[in-house]
Amino acid sequence: MSDPAPAMPEILKHVLQEEGLGTPYLGAYGLPSRNPEFGEFPRACPVKLREALGRLGIETLFTHQAAAYEAVMDGKDVCVVTGTNSGKSLCYMLPAFEMLLGEPAARVMALYPTKALAQDQLERFEALRPWPDFRIGVYDGDTPRAQRGPMRKLAHVVLTNPDMLHIGILPGHEMWGKFFKSLRLIVLDEMHVYRGVFGSHVAGILRRLLRIAAWYGSKPRIVGCTATIGNPGELFESLTGRPPAVIDTDGSGQPAKTFAFWNPAAAVTEATPSPNWMSARLLVRLATEGKRTLVFCRSRVAVELVLRYARELAERNGQPRPEQLDSYRAGYTAAERRKLEKAIHQGKLLGLVTTNAMELGVDIGVLDAVVLNGYPGSIAGFRQQCGRAGRGSRPGLAIFVAHEDPLEQYFTRDPESLILGHSEQVSLNPGTPNILEPQLQCAAHERPLDPSEVEGFGARGLEVVESMDRAGTLVFQRGRFYYPFHDAPASKVDIRGAGSDLVTLMAGIDPLGMMERWRALQYAHTGAVYLHRGVSYLVESLDLIAEVARVAPFDGPYYTQPIVQSLVEPLVTLAKAPYPPIGVELGSVRVTDMVLGYRKRALDGGQVIETQDLDLPPTSFETVGLRVDLPPFEAEEDLPIVAPGVHALEHALIAVAPMIAGCDRNDLGSGWFGIFPHTMAPAVYVFDRFAGGMGLSEKLFDARTEFFETARRAIESCSCAYGCPKCLYLARCEIANDALDKAAALGWLRDLTAEDSPNREQTG
After folding, report:
1. Residue that is last in its domain, among 492, 522, 537
2. What is the three-class DSSP state of 337?
3. Are 19 and 68 part of one and the same domain?
4. What is the CB-side half-sphere exposure of residue 81 using CA atoms within 13 A?
5. Residue 490 CA to its chain's centroid (Å)
6. Cα(669)–Cα(665) distance, integer angstroms
7. Is the predicted pLDDT of residue 338 greater than 60, yes or no?
8. Distance between CA 285 and CA 16 in Å, rounded?
9. 3 state SS for 486-506
10. In the chain, N or C terminus with fewer CB closer than 10 Å?
11. Strand 475-477, strand 480-482: pairing
């Protein structure tokens, strides 16, 4: 249980006093330290392996490490589910090295979602290596070509990522024949990252891997490690096609941890600092006291703003040195990321501002504190980020800075739901045709597909390959499906769902980074301000044909935020649920996103300075969505009266939808219609922001009673009369939260959750 009344952390108290802000502080919640529980080494652990552990000061194992080690050596596939800093790496390193000691020709493949994590784990593998002749290496896009051939032939342990496995290893599996023939163990670390489009593609890649391994005569065991999530066994089986032995009792000791909550929206002062500014203030104060700190931000723009503010404060205060603070996020060049990772590991940085790129278990030494600049998108993510602070006997501090966002404000009214609530389930859908078709094409290119093998890719596999045969993208001959073209399809399949078109940002002749086409339309259009490692650049031009955005240094007092509108068109109805006089429908839809313009926001507070229109091409995709059909109004002149309530209902639903669907807020989109053309009545949509859908809207439909009740409670628990940042305002609203009718939205939500509703008991 958490302790609801520890003292306010002195650092936070000091910052609040300096800012003249005391009222927004919500309090602190403490988790006591936990003593470790130890287990016995299973069976006769090889002497050389015990000696290697001894050199690292490890004399015994935590209970979950011992249980995983024994289960793998008993021939089981294993899924390990424990918290941050619990020593999950030993759960697969110990059986890996025992296999190698018992069979020197054996091979191990370890998959990590990022290059940085693979490099980090290479050091751990090498530190535990019980025999100097065991060859261990990282095989990814950064591996020099001269080293690739020897690694394919000689490496006992290959660390790589799903991208390289997909595009560089499986298509040329003939060069890996010796490795696949002797493959005994596959490791899936940070398994919870494999969600959405990326996770669905990884499920196809893993089935291709197991299929090729079987063709070479091996059946490797699989060890998956994940942070605490709601469905670890189900996720493992969705990814691999195999049911695992789940080990979810964490035997590691944990230091005491304090969770502090700060809510600027509750301030009564005239000039309340923005969450970005407060996160920078906390970072500088923590770093000044020598405390190594991570600041997690929800977006790339927030990362750059916090770093800019923090460096300005550090320069003004004289400590820490501005160069001791830096940022880390996707979009930087590979050289920049490697340099930052090295600086972090060597302790040259006191503070790092990052997106969830540092949420994973990269070893950056002992951290004293983390600042969460906004809710990361899931309870599991919140715990992962908080878990980075504190190690061994050193207590950790996690400070949550809430934004003016309905979901975050909901959590400030119930903070223990973040600390003690159940983690969400991870969603993926490898059987959706837009995922399954390219994966089956890749599999057929690697080796012709037998119909019996297709079933291993999912229940719809045979239906999909037959459709591909009719379309000519596969050819059925002599009882098998063949890929009929010469070029390998893998290079054309974007497994991370970002889109194959990437735009390069150029500052003169120097590349600053890259971003997906859809992201460039929103953040690299002409007139946008692009922030990079604390420096502002103005986008002078965006050439979508050449895929280049040209930027120049900029010292203006603002940054920019896109205004995006989504139009939704229904295609096929999948399910209906009547709530007279309201209807709820699940169906396939076509979504068209249009970047209408952008807002200039002040760097020193976030106030809107100016709004500019844009004329950019739209982007469209087909997905799955849930629609709420409201009663028609009686006369056309009633539209201005009804529309604000429809708009408010859309805000209420999309605000809490990620919590019900168990996903990040960016995984879902929404739209509303005063008059929906297909029903001639008001309607609200919530839809998956993935082509083909990822099962999120289906979850919302199945759990619709909980969904509607949570939305009702969220706005009922706020004392405002008309809607405010605590319950209805959304930062990305295309009309800046204008025209919201809280009372009307609440009335419809009460209808949807009435005790006599015919669908009230039908939750997923």
Report:
1. 492
2. helix
3. no
4. 20
5. 24
6. 8
7. yes
8. 11
9. CCCCHHHCCCCCCCCCEEEEE
10. N
11. antiparallel
- Which residue type does 497 have? G
22 and 72: one domain? no
Which of 397, 420, 443 represents a domain boundary (last residue)?
A: 420
Domain contains 426: no
Find all residues with CB under 8 Å of 599, minimum gap 6, and list them. Answer: 560, 561, 563, 608, 609, 610, 611, 612, 736
Closest CA relative to residue 370, chosen from 274, 279, 484, 440: 279
Strand partners, 593: 566, 619
User: Comparing 723 with 393, which gets the higher pLDDT?
Assistant: 723
In a domain, 460, yes or no: yes
> Same structural domain for residues 276 and 172?
no
* H or E segment and range at residue 619: strand 619-629
Tokens of 90: 């030993």
Angle, CA 477 vertex, CA 472 and CA 482 arms, to 5°:
55
Q: Is the dihedral of CA 44, 46, 49, 54 positive or negative?
A: positive
Quick: pLDDT tens for 419-461: 877 787 887 888 888 889 999 999 999 999 999 999 889 888 8
- From CA 493, how far away is CA 25, in angstroms rounded? 48
Helix (H) or strand (E) holding 262, with range, is strand 257-262
3 inside domain: no
Q: Kind of pairing, strands 78-81 and 107-111?
A: unpaired
Question: Could you give phi then psi for residue 717, rounded to 5 degrees?
Answer: -75, -10
- Other CB atoms within 10 A of residue 472 CB: 9
Task: Round to whole Å and give the CA distance between 585 and 577.
Answer: 6
Range of the domain at 340: 10-33+255-420
CA angle 190, 47, 249 (to 5 degrees): 35
Q: In which residue are the tokens 């082509």 written?
A: 691
Least confident of 175-184, 335-344, 366-375, 747-756: 335-344
**Is 580 part of a structural domain of the chain?**
yes
In a shared domain, residues 273 and 145: no
- Per the DSSP assignment, residues forming a β-bridge with 10 are none
Name the residue with higher pLDDT: 586 or 390.
586
Name the domain count of the chain: 5
Same domain for 488 and 506, yes or no, is no
Of residues 642 and 208, more confidently modeled: 208
Q: Do 84 and 361 touch, CB atoms closer than 8 A?
A: yes
Band of residue 33 on the pLDDT scale cut at 50, 70, 90: confident
Two tokens at 419? 């600390």
Distance of CA 311 to CAs 18, 108, 314, 330, 337, Å? 18, 44, 5, 21, 19
Pairing of strands 582-602, 558-579: antiparallel
- Specify the CATH number for the domain of residue 295: 3.40.50.300
- Quick check: pTM over 0.70? yes
The pLDDT value recorded for residue 764 is 35
CA distance 89 to 596: 48
* Between 561 and 236, residue with greater pLDDT: 236
CA–CA distance, 224 with 246 (Å, rounded to integer): 9
Nearest by Cα to 208 from 414, 469, 489, 476: 489
* Integer Cα distance of 87 and 65 in angstroms: 8
Note whether 91 and 214 are same-domain residues: yes
The pLDDT score that the predictor gives to residue 83 is: 85
Peptide bond connecting 581 to the previous residue in cis, omega within 30 degrees of 0: yes
Are 92 and 231 contained in the same domain? yes
Claim to verify: residue 507 and residue 461 sit in the same structural domain: no
